[in-house]
């Protein structure tokens, strides 16, 4: 399923942040334009059976401090979200420190894997 939405890109000193006027609460940021894009927002809406807004006509979007562009998102690659249990081994000290800080191991592993495969 392919979605195309207008996005507004803002340049900071050494990073970008992007807002999607049609997708309430959907913002992203990164050190480059390419690493600011994520499909997780739309996929979450679909999984929760929530309505997905229709995209605006980009020609009616006026930007003062950035630029607008169309952004496409093909969520088919993310659709099989069935959780798979994995067993891993880490040093005891690292485990204890992470637990004491309330770190979610599954979330950290998912974020690291996504970063590594650059999805």
In short:
The protein is an alpha+beta fold and 119 residues long. It folds into two domains: 1-79, Double Stranded RNA Binding Domain (2-Layer Sandwich); 83-119, no CATH class.
Write the layout of secondary structure elements.
Layout: E1 2-11, E2 16-19, E3 27-30, H1 40-47, E4 67-74, H2 92-100, H3 105-117
Structure characterization notes:
With 119 residues, the protein is an alpha+beta fold. The protein has two domains: 1-79, Double Stranded RNA Binding Domain, CATH 3.30.160; 83-119, no CATH class. It is 25% helix and 22% strand. The chain is built from three helices and four strands. It has a four-stranded antiparallel beta sheet with strand order 3-2-1-4, with no helix packed on it. A hairpin with a 4-residue loop joins strand 1 and strand 2. The protein is globular and about 55 Å long.
Give me the number of helical elements.
3
Helix and strand run = EEEHEHH
The tally of beta strands, per DSSP, is 4
Query: Per the principal axes of the C-alpha atoms, what is the gross shape?
Result: globular
The main pleated sheet reads as:
4 strands, antiparallel
- Spatial strand order of the main sheet: 3-2-1-4
Give the CATH architecture of the largest domain: 2-Layer Sandwich
Report the uncertain regions.
none
Beta-strand proportion: 15-25%
CATH class membership of the largest domain: Alpha Beta
User: How large, in whole angstroms, is the Cα Rg?
Assistant: 18 Å
As a percent range, the share of helical residues equals 25-40%
Structural class: alpha+beta
The end-to-end span amounts to: 16 Å
Q: What is the CATH third-level topology name of the largest domain?
A: Double Stranded RNA Binding Domain
Average pLDDT score: 83
Domain count: the total is 2
